[in-house]
Structures are given as C-alpha cells and as structure tokens.
Amino acid sequence: MACLFLNMNKVFARGPSLFYRLCIVLTLSVIGMVMDAKVESVSTARTYLTSLVSPLQYVADMPGAILDWSASRFTSRQTLLVENERLTNKITLMNEKLQRFTVLKQENENLRRLLDAPVQSGMHRMIAELMAVDNNPYSHQIVINKGAIHDVYEGQPVLDDTGIVGQIVEVGTTNSRVLLISDITHAIPVRISRNNVSVIAGGAGVVTELSLEHVAHSADLQEGDLLVSSGLGKVFPEGYPVGVIESIVRDESKPFSKVTAQTSAQLDRIKYLLLLWPPESAPADSLSPDQLGQKVDE
Amino acid sequence: MNNRSFIIISIIIGIILQIIPMPSPVDLYRPDWLLLILIYWSMALPNRVSVGVAAFTGLVIDLLYGTSLGVHSFALSIPVYLVAANYQRLRNHSMLQQIMTILMLCVLYHLIVYWLQYWITGIEFSWLFLWPAVSSVLFWPWLFWLLRKFRRDLRVT
C-alpha cells in the first residue's frame, strides 16, 4: 500500500501539490480580475499583451479571409456587372443627395454665424474592416483592423453606413476592440429626432437591441421614432442615427415605462466600419470632410 | 525534435478554434475546443498538462476575448484540476461514463464563467449559455480518438 502511494506521489514529485497549485492559480486569477476592474495601468499592460497574442487572431481570421478571397475570385462576370450597375445607380443617387447637402450645410453654417452659434466642423474619417467577432454571449465586442499606428484612441466613435456601432475600448498596435452599443455595459445619450426629447439608450444585451432607461410614462415617445445621438456625452458626435423605437410598454405599476429600440446599424452583419476623429486630432491619412466629396466624384 | 511540442500545437489549435469567426447562429453552439483538449491532456499526461497550463491558456483566451483578466483562467483551471486529480478513475471509465463526466465539467466551466461575469458586469442568465456543453460532448469521442491516435503515433510522453 505504501508503495502504491509512493508511486502516485511520484507523478507530481516536482513542485507543489496539485491542490496547492490550484489554490495559487485561483488566487492569482481573482487578483487579476480585481486589478483589471480597479487599477488603471492594467489597461496599458493589456494593450501590450493583446499585441503579443494578436498573431493568433490573424491566424484565426485566415479561413474567412481565404473564403472571401476565393469568393471574390470566382464571382461570375454577370454578378459583377449587376453589382457594378447597382453601385453606379447608388452613387448617382447619393451624389444628387450630396449636392443638396452641401448647399444645406452652407446655409446652416451661415445661419449659425448669424446667430453667433459655433459652426460645427465635420469629422475626419477612416475606413476600418472587421477582423473578429467576440463569441462569448456575455459581451458584444468586435475587433477591427486599425490600431495605435493609425492613431486610434480609446473612446473613439465607430460607425457604419447606417448608424452608430459603438466605441473603441481597447487599442492594440495594429488592431483594436470595439464595444457595441448593444452591450449591456454600454449606454449612449440620444435624443428623439421628432421632438428633441433626451433619453439614454443602454444596451439590452441582445444584438441589435437597445433599451431606453428611465423614461417617464408621460414622455412623448412613439413607436417608430428615430433616435439620433445627442452628443451630450462628448464621446459620440451629434446627429447620427442610433436606433428606432420598437415597442413601448407603459405599465403604470412600474416607475418607468419599458421602451426598447432596434439599432439602426445592423450589428450582426458588420463588415466595413468608419472611425471618426475630431479635426484637431485627426491623423494625416484620414479623409477630411471635404475630401470625401472628391472621393465620391473619383 | 521533442514530441511534446505536439501538446503545445494542439493547445494552440484549440485556442484558434475557440476564436475563429463563425456566423452567429452557429456560434451559439461552438464546442469548448480548448477545454476538451486540456481535459484530454490532463487525463492522458497529468504530469505535463494540468492547472498551470490551463491557467496560462485561460489568460490568453481572456486577452483574445476581451474579458477581465483571470475569468477564463479561473474557469478553465477548476475542471482541469478535477480531471488531473482523478485521472486514473477517468481513464478506466467507459466512453458513456466519460461523456457524462465531460458534460458535467463543461457545464461547470460555463457556469463559472457566467458567475464571474455576473459578479463583474451583472449579466442575466440564459439557458442558451449551456448549449456549447452539449455540442462539446458530441465532439468528445472523436476528439478523444484523434488525440489518442496522435499521442500514440508520435509517442508523446
């Protein structure tokens, strides 16, 4: 019997016992979690560590990239022609809209000058591509292919062509992490474009769903109202679409009504994204608002 | 070359399978590749792979997932500890018994991740979180067979 025990112990002869090791590991993990929540400097360390493991992300991204590449190689001439026609039509329509927009913008600026209100300057922008979607159901985050070397900063607004997507929470060297507006820890100040009622839209924890917080029963909200960013939090620029009110439940026994909204951006099918910079801090290779018009003309 | 590097390669493959982008309906049922691979190694070679390796790979997963540092280290090391502490018993189990054990371990893993996340961000529980445990179990016999074949052919010790 003693012999048996000796043999069993031999397996773990080096170092501390298994249970002891488990205790050390669990303690370290708890310390890590607490530090991550409380200590500010952990996020810088995290940036370096994330850059260290990012090759894994690139490898994991490869099968999708290869599929995309082969799909683009093997699309038929017919599909390309159809797509080309569709895009040309779209550009014509967009350009027509843009012409009116430039005139309106100038008019708006003139009016603002007359009122002595500050003229709003356009944002600089850069196109980013989706690299990875987080697959844990507990948080809604995505990874994009722009990072510190492209002057991405923490708290930067991220949009797509239909509305606000989220903000940057973690910057790596060549990629960064975006927290989506539907994440349960995220909230964005919005106003209703119809009557300028301000509310806060928090993430509902379900992709493409928002829940409006602390809405009084008497507030003038209707289903189908468009929510646009109000710019009050100083994170998101003003006036971009955030979502559309989907349902309002006015249960008088509860202190507030339960309002849910659908996000304007299709958060479950993101591919290309726009990063915005205020003009003061924009990197050299970003597109300025004036350049954008030229880009479309080209 | 030392055949032990196969252990490292298999764990890296596990990590990649864990983060590879998938369409969201399929994503819900993604098996816990990494946990399965770690369980296999801690059952086959508990003196090589056990709590320490599990904690380290958990940290890598935390960095890749963007969760708080330590969540997955914590959640991975407990099931791996249970396997490493009872590896002789598990090796003698029939496949059916093994499957039941693996199911319990996967559920435990997901519950720990959920509890820790609940403690940090206050998420709500949904039974959907436990689906990966079922799909993991479906993959376990094949993974077990594959890894054992590699271990024997390459004489990993």
TrEMBL record, chain B:
- Where does this polypeptide localize? Cell inner membrane; Cell membrane
Which chain regions cross the lipid bilayer?
6-26, 63-87, 99-120, 126-147
Tell me which stretches of the chain form a coiled coil.
none
Pfam families, alphabetized: MreD
Q: How does it sit in the membrane?
A: Multi-pass membrane protein
Q: This protein's superkingdom?
A: Bacteria
Sorted UniProt keywords:
Cell inner membrane, Cell membrane, Cell shape, Membrane, Transmembrane, Transmembrane helix
Q: Which PANTHER family match?
A: ROD SHAPE-DETERMINING PROTEIN MRED
Q: What functional role does this protein have?
A: Involved in formation of the rod shape of the cell. May also contribute to regulation of formation of penicillin-binding proteins.
Family of this protein: Belongs to the MreD family.
Provide the protein name: Rod shape-determining protein MreD
Q: Which gene encodes it?
A: mreD
